[in-house]
Amino acid sequence: MNRVNLAIIGGGLVGASLALTLQAAAKARGWTILLIEPFAPGDSFQPSYDARSSALSYGTRQIYERLGLWQAISRRAEPIRQIQVSDRGRFGAARLDALEEGVPALGYVVENAWLGQCLWQAIDNEVVSWRCPAQVQAMQAIAGGYRLQLDDDTVLECDLAVLADGGRSGLREQLGIHVRHTPYDQSALIANITPGEAHAGQAFERFTEQGPMALLPLADNRCALVWTRQGMDAKRLAELDERSFLRELQEAFGYRLGALRQVGARHLYPLSLVEAEEQVRPHLVVLGNAAHSLHPIAGQGFNLSLRDVQSLADALLAGPALPGDLPTLQGYHQRQRLDQALTIGFSDQVTRVFGSSQPLLAAGRNLGLLGLDLLPPAKSWFARQAMGLGTRPDPRGRP
């Protein structure tokens, strides 16, 4: 029977990042890593107007720099040089600036397909092997690891199984790992937009009575839109003709980037906060969206997962000769608990406070935005959360 040291179930951005973080040390240790992924990545990057994208924090850039990947990723990474936070119809506003924070950019927006290509092309095939397209149908805990049953009737065993198969993980349910599910009763409308003026690296967080929206800078002077609305209203917006949709978006967003000229394909995603009640068991780790799935408006989900990846890799490489022992995995989870709690709490509170139309909350957040812009320590704290540095040393050496 085939046996590997580490089986990563899900070869997407999180799973591939874990393989890359481990591969150099794994080669020295003689570890074998297997990525199991149902969807084969493309042979080459094909630019698309409608490509889905991710917001990478400055902390994520630092991680990929240490892996030697940032130079390739940065070729299509659009820097966020300024973030403007505003509340429609009210005077409160705040502006975060990369220069004030002493960093080249607060974050970056990258097409997922490009990021995936950069990751997959950097994988060392002498250490990391692929089973793709392939899917794990069943998992069974055995002495010293897990037995995996694949959809092609292959059976293999591993010392450590990493579950990184997404927020709707069927294997998580099969293993009896319960989740805390907090619905937001909202859907995110995702689309790419062409503005009339150059975005100049500006990102916008705009809060309205109908729900928050984010407009993030993309390559080729496009912007990635994340527009949160109530379920039926989101469906209505998704089905509008292009002119009517742009008219409503323009009314909600304003003319900060001139007249909005084009919208691409629109996609809807129901929103909820999902947290796995168990992230580690003997010889098992739950990672990425399978561990925690956040509201997208704060752009923290993938960045938190990548910090989990880095922390898990550090723990495994400081642990025993073979991966998977429970004390090592518990140590990893304990170290990440504060980061997860702060990031999830930050994302959830931003969603609730700025997504509410209650008069008292609206007045309070308006004053909060005004205070944020006037108080440098508060602004810097907020910027560090956005940059994914909330629990890490300040890049300017401040406490």
From TrEMBL:
Enzyme Commission code(s) on record? 1.14.13.-
**Keywords assigned by UniProt, alphabetized:** FAD, Flavoprotein, Monooxygenase, Oxidoreductase
Q: In which pathway does it act?
A: Cofactor biosynthesis; ubiquinone biosynthesis
Which BP terms in the Gene Ontology apply to this protein? ubiquinone biosynthetic process
The segment(s) forming the FAD-binding domain are 5-318
Gene3D superfamilies of this UniProt entry? FAD/NAD(P)-binding domain
Q: Which Pfam families match?
A: FAD_binding_3
**Transmembrane segments annotated in the record for this chain:** none
Quote the InterPro entries the UniProt record gives.
Answer: FAD-bd, FAD/NAD-bd_sf, UbiH, UbiH/COQ6, UbiH/COQ6_monooxygenase
Task: Output the Gene Ontology terms for molecular function.
Answer: 2-octaprenyl-6-methoxyphenol hydroxylase activity; FAD binding
Which cofactor names does the annotation list?
Answer: FAD
What is stated as this protein's family in its record?
Answer: Belongs to the UbiH/COQ6 family.
Q: What is this protein called?
A: 2-octaprenyl-6-methoxyphenol hydroxylase
Taxonomic source organism: Pseudomonas soli
Upper classification of the source organism reads: Bacteria, Pseudomonadati, Pseudomonadota, Gammaproteobacteria, Pseudomonadales
Identify the gene encoding this protein. Answer: ubiH
